[in-house]
Design brief:
The protein is mainly alpha-helical. The chain has helices spanning about 1-20, 25-40, 45-60, 60-75, 80-90, 95-105, 110-120, 130-135, 145-150, 160-170, 175-190, 195-205, 210-220, 225-240, 245-255, 260-275, 275-290, 295-310, 310-325, 330-340, 345-360, 365-375, 380-390, 395-405. The N and C termini lie far apart (about 55 Å).
Length: about 400
Amino acid sequence: MKMVNKIIRNILIFLVTCSFNITTNGQLVYETLLHSEALIKNGETGGAIELLSSAIKEKQDSRLFVERAEAFIKEGDYQNAINDCNTANSLIPYSGEYLLARIYAMKGDAATSLYHLERNIGSSFRKSEKEVMLDPAYGLIENSPEWRQFWKKDLYSDLETGVSEIEYYVTANMNEEAVNKLSELENKYNDDDEVLYSRALINHSSGRSAAAIKILSGLINSDPGNGKFMRLLAKAQVAVSNYAGASATYTRLIKLEIPDAVLFLLRAECYSKTGETDRAVADIEKFLTLYPEDKRALSMAGRIYTASGNYLKALEYFSENLRYHPHDPGCYIDRADAYLMSRSWDWAMKDYSMSLDLDPSNSEAWLNKGISLLNSGKKDDACHDFRKSFNLGNKRAISYLSKYCIK
């Protein structure tokens, strides 16, 4: 696995380094951040530092220094991380403050950490109260007197705190509490954008996604660079099956150059729903260059090709997924479904059997294994599987039992 990761790292570095001469500075920074994030998540922090250092030679951008500081932190090199944060601050004031707060917290220096945290909260780079409170970096200082004293200050407005509460209530499925808090905010702040966003969030979580879309569309027209509003809009559009609208929203998010590769995967899902296979596959391939072992992306690519009738290509992705995830029953089912649709009965039966060895409670897998056996001329074995499927609650098995198994 270490050798595979090293190869992946070298490929990523090569691809981005080769792009330095053909991209704009903005694209260079964006692509570098995407690839360095992938390297860090794959445990290749050394590769991320190498990549970021190459990019920094081309472009002195605060985001690159902050990202390299993150990689240095992973390596336990706090001094170089601090140096990069200070450089980021010199390029764009306050851009490195939050990371400095995290570094000093991890060093156990509460006073210096909170100094930088307060500077962050007072800037345009401010983190929300929820983000700070959930950040494990503050574990060493959260019981200190400095920490307790710090949170006695009025660091966040009532509106900010209220919106955070609503987001928590929605996540926890506490709809009544969310509605009550929204009423408080509406009485005090009327139609502030954050109040409208909160209303849209509650609408979406309550199944009223069309109403959420109406609110969010207006918000984005007045604030076209707000990624938080756009992410919720895309989710709401997917909820009402407006996949074309959602793919357009994800495109706008990607154009903001937010270094989040999952956006490509989410857009690919939308493209697949609208039948734009080539675009869907291009987005998945983009994601897989960053995360080649990702189960969701490999499965999605295979299912897209299965739906288009290109079973050979689908089987390539499904087999690759199984190579990385040999103990996942869903990966066997994906490949078995492709074999079933291509009428490769014996291969389908073998993969369904493997999936059922791992998860014998899947009624659909029992049914499809039975269909594969039936088409292979093994009716008695097929009837056994149809009965298993029926006993597990699959009503579709009834027609097969009545037609082939009841004498």
